[in-house]
Task: inverse folding
C-alpha cells in the first residue's frame, strides 16, 4: 500500500516540494500553502502527504510499517515519493522528526529542509531544558484512550496558545481535522510516543550538507523558542521568527509565513 497525498503543480517535474503534517492532522492542513507554492513555482511538483494512520492513509497499518510506528518506519514509507526527485521538505511539528530521519539516512535527494514549529526533541531532559514537560504528552496519551476526538481538539487548543488570533486559528484547525477521515487510534497513540520518547539531536548534527531553516513562532508552547535559538547555532541552520505566532504560524500568520517560504525557497 502506498501513502496517500494531495498534489499541485507539474506532476512530471523532477523537482518537488514535499509537505509533512504534524500529530493528529492530515495533508489538508497544508492546502493553502500547497496552492501558494503552485503559484510561486508552477514548474515544480508540490505534494502534501498523509502520514500512515492519517487522512486517506488511515488504512496504512502496522503490517506495512514492519510492526513498528516511529520516525524510521514513517520515513521509509515516504521514500517512494522521492522517485529520484530533488526535494525540498517542509515539515511541521512531529513531521520534523520524520524529515530528520529521511535526511540522516541519506537515501533521498533533499536540497533544503524547512522545519516549522518543530524540534529534534520535544520533551525536557537535563541537557535539553527548552522543551515541554513529559507529563503533557503522558496526559494526552491517557485521555486518548477515553475520547480520541476530544483529545485531538484539546491538542489543537494547545497548538494555538500564544497566538494573537487563537480562536480563529483553532477553528481553522478543527475544520481541517477530519476533512480526510478519522485518524487511526493506534497511530495517534504511537505518534504521542514519538513526541514523548524520540531524540533526533545527534542525527540532526550529522546533516551538515543540507541547509536547514527553522520557522518558529515566538509564543510556541510545544516547540519552545529558546530551543529553536539553540538549534540555530549550527552552521547550516537559519532561524526565521514570527513574533506573535504559536505552534501553527502558517495558520495564524499566513502572509508572513508565505513571504518567509518565498525567501527560503528562492534563495
Result:
Amino acid at each position: 500500500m502506498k501513502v496517500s497525498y494531495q498534489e499541485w503543480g507539474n506532476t512530471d517535474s523532477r523537482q518537488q516540494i514535499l509537505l509533512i503534517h504534524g500529530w493528529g492532522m492530515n495533508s489538508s492542513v497544508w492546502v493553502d500553502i500547497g496552492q501558494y507554492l503552485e503559484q510561486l513555482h508552477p514548474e515544480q511538483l508540490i505534494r502534501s502527504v498523509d502520514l500512515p494512520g492519517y487522512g486517506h492513509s488511515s488504512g496504512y497499518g502496522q503490517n506495512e510499517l514492519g510492526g513498528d510506528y516511529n520516525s524510521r518506519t514513517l520515513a521509509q514509507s515516504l521514500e517512494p515519493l522521492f522517485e529520484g526527485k530533488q526535494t525540498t521538505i517542509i515539515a511541521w511539528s512531529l513531521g520534523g522528526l520524520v524529515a530528520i530521519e529521511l535526511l540522516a539516512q541519506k537515501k533521498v535527494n533533499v536540497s533544503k529542509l524547512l522545519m516549522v514549529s518543530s524540534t529534534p526533541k520535544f520533551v525536557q531532559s537535563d541537557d535539553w531544558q527548552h522543551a515541554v514537560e513529559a507529563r503533557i504528552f503522558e496526559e494526552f496519551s491517557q485521555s486518548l484512550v477515553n475520547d480520541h476526538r476530544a483529545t485531538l481538539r484539546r491538542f489543537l487548543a494547545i497548538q494555538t496558545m500564544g497566538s494573537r488570533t487563537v480562536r480563529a486559528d483553532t477553528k481553522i484547525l478543527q475544520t481541517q481535522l477530519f476533512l480526510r477521515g478519522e485518524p487511526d487510534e493506534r497511530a495517534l497513540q504511537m505518534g504521542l510516543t514519538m513526541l514523548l520518547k524520540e531524540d533526533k539531536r545527534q542525527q540532526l548534527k550529522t546533516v551538515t550538507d543540507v541547509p536547514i531553516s527553522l520557522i518558529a513562532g515566538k509564543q510556541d508552547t510545544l516547540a519552545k523558542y529558546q530551543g529553536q535559538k539553540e538549534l540555530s547555532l549550527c552552521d547550516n541552520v537559519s532561524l526565521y521568527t514570527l513574533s506573535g505566532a504559536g505552534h501553527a504560524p502558517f495558520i495564524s500568520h499566513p502572509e508572513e509565513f508565505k513571504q518567509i517560504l518565498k525567501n527560503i525557497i528562492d534563495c
